[in-house]
Design brief:
Order of helices and strands: EHEHEHE
Helix content: 25-40%
CATH architecture: 2-Layer Sandwich
Largest sheet: 4 strands, parallel
Radius of gyration: 13 Å
Mean pLDDT: 91
Shape: globular
Number of domains: 1
Low-confidence stretches: none
Domain STAS: 1-98
Number of strands: 4
Protein name: Anti-sigma factor antagonist
Family: Belongs to the anti-sigma-factor antagonist family.
CATH superfamily: STAS domain
Structural class: alpha/beta
InterPro entries: Anti-sigma_ant, STAS_dom, STAS_dom_sf
Number of helices: 3
CATH topology: Transcription Regulator spoIIAA
């Protein structure tokens, strides 16, 4: 999955709904989020990511974050969430050949 723009109080509900739809409609247990296009992420956005992580873990899955820009990487580090999520500096090579969803 790819997220672009801002993840904040105003956009988080839409993101939460989209994740809920994807998780409901599929048996996906492994999600990698390309965050290279995220310009801003506040605590509301982090809570959405944490709730998705929790739902995936409940079904034995994982959530990975890829290519967060420096500002988002700093937020993950300051909050300690860089140790909760698997964070890749770039989008994993095997995903680059897949069609975006």
């Amino acid at each position: 999955m790819t997220i672009v723009g801002e993840i904040d109080l105003y956009t988080a509900p839409r993101l939460q709904s989209e994740f809920a739809r994807v998780l409901e409609e599929s048996r996906t247990t492994h999600v990698v989020i390309d965050m290279s296009g995220v310009e801003f992420c506040d605590s509301t956005g982090l809570n959405v990511l944490l709730s998705v992580l929790k739902r995936l873990k409940e079904r034995g899955g994982v959530l990975e974050l890829a290519a967060p820009p420096p500002a988002v990487q700093k937020i993950l580090q300051v909050t300690g969430l860089d140790s909760v999520f698997t964070v890749h500096k770039a989008v994993p090579e095997e995903l680059l050949t897949s069609e975006p969803q």
